[in-house]
Amino acid sequence: MTKKNSNDKDPLSIGVIGAGSWGTALAIHLSRLGVATTLWGHRSEHVKKLQQERENQKYLPGQRFPELLQVSSSLEETISAKQVLCLVVPSHVFRQTFQNISYLLKGKKDVPEIYLSATKGVENETFFTMTQIIDHYLKEVKIPGTVAVLSGPSFAKEVAKQLPTAITIGSRNADTAKILQRIFNTEYFRVYTSSDVVGLEISAALKNIIAIAAGVCDGLGFGNNARAALITRGLVEITRMGKALGAEEKTFYGLSGLGDLVLTCTGDLSRNRHVGLELGKGNKIEDILKNMSMVAEGVKTTLSGYLFARKLGISMPILEQMYNILYRGKNTAEAAKSLLTRDLKEE
Ligand SMILES: NC(=O)C1=CN([C@@H]2O[C@H](COP(=O)(O)OP(=O)(O)OC[C@H]3O[C@@H](n4cnc5c(N)ncnc54)[C@H](OP(=O)(O)O)[C@@H]3O)[C@@H](O)[C@H]2O)C=CC1
Ligand SMILES: O=C(CO)COP(=O)(O)O
């Protein structure tokens, strides 16, 4: 599959599932590249507004939809006659959304060949990654298809503005990764490939927790030294858990690991960092979340990550203090003190 279908007659069609900021930015990106793209949103009133205004004023204001971009609230319509499905709903609704898709695909002949997750989170209750959920339902409904993940430092707003960005697309199937690389890559959006799917997904999910911690650090007014130390030790923790789950160490030093960690720990467009900044200024998590319309995946991942790290016996002290702040109401300055006064160690 290139930008044409395998028989080279039908143009490439992609369904993007999730009309938040990232789904919208990716759908705009694809349609700019000449791909017939359908963007699915779950609320019909919101979808009607997108169709009328040809812009997502709620999640990505100021970015006009290219002509090739269609918007739909019908899952069936969105997935029909597509070669690739790109899944970009928040992780807590991923299973339900993909289960619905799989039931619609069941028994059909003309089904997508590739399922690409661009979500950055894990399932809270099970710690399943999004591609594990996709794999599960594809097997259940006996649908063939390869699975992939898109990750890396990429604020939706900057991608939509065509500012230079580099990301990684991973699949255990090298051909799939290359096909997607060719579809998504353009001058301002450079795509690398990887085969380390679990590494990409775990680094993407866990960096959100460290981004909240970096926000706390800045909210407390700790300065640049502290933030740099937090990013570095955060990467050690992320790598520790990733390796325990079978990921390759080098992935954590790549775009999806270090790259996205630096972006979200320092970039003020990060929603996770914003949550941390507000916590560091003394605001309560309930109030911070009430005032946000967008998702900060790291809040839920802190709870599931903490429980999972304990289960596996992995030491993750920053994660533990973030759990204490978010779920035990610990004072942020006290949590920082607990980290700084731990037993002395070799690096
Ligand atoms: N934004 C970014 O820059 C980037 C985000 N990501 C990741 O992409 C994923 C999606 O985040 P993002 O696009 O930012 O989300 P946003 O916070 O921008 O929006 C959330 C979206 O989820 C929708 N939603 C809520 N409940 C459901 C449901 N039950 N079924 C389907 N959709 C639902 C919302 O719809 P509504 O409001 O209409 O209810 C809204 O469209 C996350 O995992 C995030 O980490 C990755 C890279 C960059
Ligand atoms: O993952 C992102 C950019 O790569 C977006 O981060 P936030 O969800 O913290 O905004």
TrEMBL record:
Its main location: cytoplasm. Sn-glycerol 3-phosphate binds at residues 120, 152, 154, 207, 260, 270-272. Residues 196-336 form the Glycerol-3-phosphate dehydrogenase NAD-dependent C-terminal domain. It holds the Pfam family NAD_Gly3P_dh_N. Residues 14-176 form the Glycerol-3-phosphate dehydrogenase NAD-dependent N-terminal domain. Pathway: Membrane lipid metabolism; glycerophospholipid metabolism. Its EC number is 1.1.1.94. It is found in: Cytoplasm. Signal peptide: none annotated. PANTHER family: GLYCEROL-3-PHOSPHATE DEHYDROGENASE, GLYCEROL-3-PHOSPHATE DEHYDROGENASE [NAD(+)] 2, CHLOROPLASTIC. Catalyzes the reduction of the glycolytic intermediate dihydroxyacetone phosphate (DHAP) to sn-glycerol 3-phosphate (G3P), the key precursor for phospholipid synthesis. Belongs to the NAD-dependent glycerol-3-phosphate dehydrogenase family. This is Glycerol-3-phosphate dehydrogenase [NAD(P)+]. It comes from Desulfofustis limnaeus.
